[in-house]
Amino acid sequence: MKKSRTLLAGAVAVMISAAPAPAADAVLNIYNWNDYIAPDTVPAFEKATGIKVSYDLYDANETLEGKLSAGNSGYDIVVPTLVPFAARQIKAGFYQPLDKSKLSNYGHLDKGLLARMEAQDPGNDHLVPWLSAIVVMGYNVDKIKQIMPDAPLDSLRMVFDPKVVAKFKECGVSIMDSPTEVFPPALLWLGLNPDSKKPEDLKKAADLLKEIRSSVRRFDSSEYINALAAGDICLAWGYSSDLEVAKHRAMEAGKGVNISVVIPKEGAERYIDVLAVPKDAPHPEAALKFINFVMQPEEVAKTSSKVYAMSGNADAKPFVSPEAAADPVIFPSPEVEKTLYTITGADPAADRLRTRLWTEIKTGH
Amino acid sequence: MIPAPQDSPWADAAATPQLRIRNVVKTFEGFAAVDDVSLDIYRGEFFSLLGASGCGKTTLLRMLAGFEFPDRGAVELDGLDLLKLQPYERPVNMMFQSYALFPHMSVAQNIGFGLRSEGLSRDHLEERVVNALKLVQLSEFAHRKPNQLSGGQKQRVALARALVKRPKILLLDEPLSALDKKLREATQFELINIQKQVGVTFIMVTHDQEEAMAMSTRIAVMDKGRVVQVGAPHEIYEYPHSRFVATFIGSINLFEGMAAHGPDGWRVDCAHWPLRTAQDLAALDHHQVALGVRPEKIRIAPLDENFAADNVCEGVVREVAYLGESMLYRVALPSGFLVRVAAPNLGARFSSGQPVRIGFGADAGVALDK
Amino acid sequence: MRGLSEERKRALGRFLVIAIPFLWLGALFLAPFLIVAKISLSSAAVAIPPYEPLISWADDGALVLTLHVGNYKLIFSDPIYLIAYASSLRNAAVTVIFTLLLGFPLAYFIATRDQKWRAPLLLLVMLPFWTSFLIRVYAWIGILKPNGVINGALLWLGVIEKPLVILNNNFAVIVGMVYGYLPFMVLPLYAHLEKMDWSLLEAASDLGAKPFRVFRKVTLPLAAPGIVAGSLLVFIPAVGEYIVPALLGGPDTLTIGATLWNEFFSNRDWPVASTVAVALVALLVGPLLALQHHRTKGARP
């Protein structure tokens, strides 16, 4: 789940973008996250199949959900995050079952991941795993060490211990503007179930977040990539794929900004983004062809290397760039993998409470 | 209206002018709108700036009001250097051609507007407004808005609004041009009466020579940014200095010819009709001049009626215009030259094609060399 | 019977002339508004579309109309909505004041230029519209950020020692909104100033009024309709402004636009989102009607 580049652009997209061109043979309408596919995958698919791809972008699950909720989106393939989005969207009847007899490359998929997905998608009827990453922290190593030589670099304390995070206030702390990615680690830091939906737990987490609020310069889900790479901030809570981008940009810039992306030892949220075909997709056959195409290990490995995320394809790792393959944040060790948790969907009342608490944390009202 | 000598301060060398305009020049993008104008205007005058549009008369007026500043020259009012003052500091007020009444204010508010910056007491201010309304007979319209007034009423509000300030000089920019003909005549006399009542110097810009003649003590005729002649209406009319003034004011016959001296005195040797004149043309001897003769100075008579005059000629009536109070004829001389003749509408009338005799005295014409 | 048919044609023409704007308003304003109002009386559901239908068939074949007024109760019971409304109204009002303070001299300047300069100057005012609003607001981030243009210049000049915090707060929001809405103020003001009778200003000056009094007593009252038009044109969209606070605002910037976004996307609660929108319209339409009433009354003799 790459989630909101800017929530705003998503909202604008929902408001102004018309549905794609009407159905025609040999056409495929894909709606995907921005920067979430290798640049040559679509041309290769077009060349291999003769199907013309029309490719639209979004930057927030909310945008995608808003569009699918209205119906008649016109898209053939979308890429929601498994929980809570794809899970509840299956229940709401957004997607059609996939005809696996037409997916000859299905066998390459990671069986463990498929098993984990069955909780949300019984029989793996509707979804195919695409990419998976983790919600983690990234920081400017030199600045942090300069301010706090004994900083707990591998712990949630960096962000969620009010006394620690207060030290980094001056050099800049950014936290994602997304309650679903911030409540779980806060709950975990408090020793509670990170997936808890209990109002009293959520309120406790909110109290903690209110305490660290004064140390946070910006609640933001997209600018932190550039800000961290440019040295404008020194600590960010965000998506591992985004933070990896920041790290590589800083290295390329060569201005001595040294970024570290770290999975907290207490655990972190793994999220899975999946491919799905909307129920009213105008070109379901073409959609299946595309899914089968990107299930080739070589194809998805290109995307995996490009966007710094693990793919849901068990046989892809050998084709991934050596640098990415060796990155413990993209491919954690089995021990670390065990500490990763996933979040389940919440009922609307819990969602509303969480959103409300989030507004309260941010604005004080 | 020929003023009595005591009404002609400009003729008195010892009198001090109220307003002195000295060598004023104003150019717009290289074009001299006002070109070296000097004028003396005396207290209590009704002075008109007369000329065709574009002659610079309005620019001159706007410089007196302070909306334009001259490039060169001086303007003094009672010894006060007007050019150092902004419009709102000048003891001068203007009545605009469009009247420029404030549409969002009532008649009384319009009139009171100028008084509010004078720091008058409320009662005093109201009294002045009431008096001004009385002066222009608009007391019952005090609470109307300008768009509820007729053209004549608006004009009077504009007048009252300017006069209530008790200016030393009132500037009037084509004050009657927006009125219809009938109202215009009535208003002319009203303006003259009001001026006499308040005793303020009026300087009026107009393109209408009749209006200027009827109302002014003196007229400055302007052409191409310059003042070509200044004088009382009868002077301008009877003794124009130039062909331009002669033709601009009223109607005139111009007999072009060489000035020469003969046995009978001075004459103008016009090819169409050699003419005798009582004027001393010594300074113009053997110069090309025009003898200007107003149509009403020429007598017209049937051939069988003999009349004596210094200049007599036979001709044929070519055109007849019936003007009610007078008849206007165009009489062709033997050379074909057309002479305009105006005759009072009494007794004999002549018809087209009728041979006639026309003539005038040696003192009827004025020789023009410019 | 030719006359009659002409008569009929004319009646039809009159009808069409009146009907077209009404159809336009009906199709593009009233119908969407009624749909939103309808959704506001529903309740959220996990479905396509994500709310319960108002009318449903009961098992016994009866037609059931279910209206939820709970959404309206909700937005009045939780102060967050009122606070968001108040903060949006305040920002819009401040934006109106600043666009007026900047826009009036600008419009006045253009309207008093020579005829040949007015069109190019107006074009300059409208030029920013050729670029996406989003990009222009992003440009302000570059100008206002801690190592941006303004702070860079001030630091270089030695005026300040550490960067001013002028981004991600309400100051930045106001800057962005004033920037974005300035043309909406300038254009109607210009339209009114341009056709103003300048001799009225000369007359006022001639009558002894100093420039400030001329401005206050003549220019301002005569430009009043333009000021009202410009203020409305700025105020109405400014209340619902989403983009500028989202990009330039800080985390504590609370606006009705952001509240709507939360309801629509985070809570997936279209009915509550619709309720917030309906309440916003009610909040705007009330004062507008009052103003319109006042204006028509003022225009009557």
UniProtKB/TrEMBL annotation, chain A:
A Pfam short name: SBP_bac_8
Entry GO CC: periplasmic space
Chain segments annotated as coiled-coil in the UniProt record: none
CDD domains in UniProt: PBP2_PotF
Keyword Phosphoprotein: no
GO terms, biological process: polyamine transport
Localization per record: Periplasm
Family annotation (Gene3D superfamilies): Periplasmic binding protein-like II
Assigned keywords, A-Z: Periplasm, Signal, Transport
Gene Ontology molecular function terms on file: polyamine binding
Main location: periplasm
Signal peptide annotation: 1-23
Physiological role: Required for the activity of the bacterial periplasmic transport system of putrescine.
UniProt xrefs under PANTHER family: NORSPERMIDINE SENSOR, SPERMIDINE/PUTRESCINE-BINDING PERIPLASMIC PROTEIN
Similarity comment text for this entry: Belongs to the bacterial solute-binding protein PotD/PotF family.
Name the record gives this protein: Putrescine-binding periplasmic protein
The species this protein was found in: Rhodoblastus acidophilus
Taxonomic classification: Bacteria, Pseudomonadati, Pseudomonadota, Alphaproteobacteria, Hyphomicrobiales
UniProtKB/TrEMBL annotation, chain B:
Domain of life where this protein originates: Bacteria
Catalytic reaction equation(s): ATP + H2O + polyamine-[polyamine-binding protein]Side 1 = ADP + phosphate + polyamineSide 2 + [polyamine-binding protein]Side 1
UniProt KW keywords: ATP-binding, Cell inner membrane, Cell membrane, Membrane, Nucleotide-binding, Translocase, Transport
Broad enzyme group: translocase
A Gene Ontology molecular function term of the record: ATP binding
Gene Ontology biological process terms from the UniProt entry: putrescine transport
GO CC terms in record: ATP-binding cassette (ABC) transporter complex
EC number(s) on file: 7.6.2.11
SMART domains: AAA
Domain ABC transporter: 19-249
Pfam families, sorted: ABC_tran, TOBE_2
Function of the protein: Part of the ABC transporter complex PotABCD involved in spermidine/putrescine import. Responsible for energy coupling to the transport system.
Assembly mode: The complex is composed of two ATP-binding proteins (PotA), two transmembrane proteins (PotB and PotC) and a solute-binding protein (PotD).
Protein name: Spermidine/putrescine import ATP-binding protein PotA
Automatic annotation (TrEMBL), chain C:
Subcellular localization(s) per the UniProt record: Cell membrane
Organism domain of life: Bacteria
Organism: Rhodoblastus acidophilus (Rhodopseudomonas acidophila)
Domain ABC transmembrane type-1: from-to ranges: 85-291
One GO CC term, this protein: plasma membrane
GO biological process: transmembrane transport
Protein name, entry field: ABC transporter permease subunit
Pfam families noted in UniProt: BPD_transp_1
Family: Belongs to the binding-protein-dependent transport system permease family. CysTW subfamily.
Keywords on record: Cell membrane, Membrane, Transmembrane, Transmembrane helix, Transport
Classification via SUPFAM superfamilies: MetI-like
TM region(s), chain numbering: 12-35, 92-109, 121-141, 171-191, 218-239, 270-291
Membrane topology per record: Multi-pass membrane protein
InterPro entries: MetI-like (IPR000515), MetI-like_sf (IPR035906)
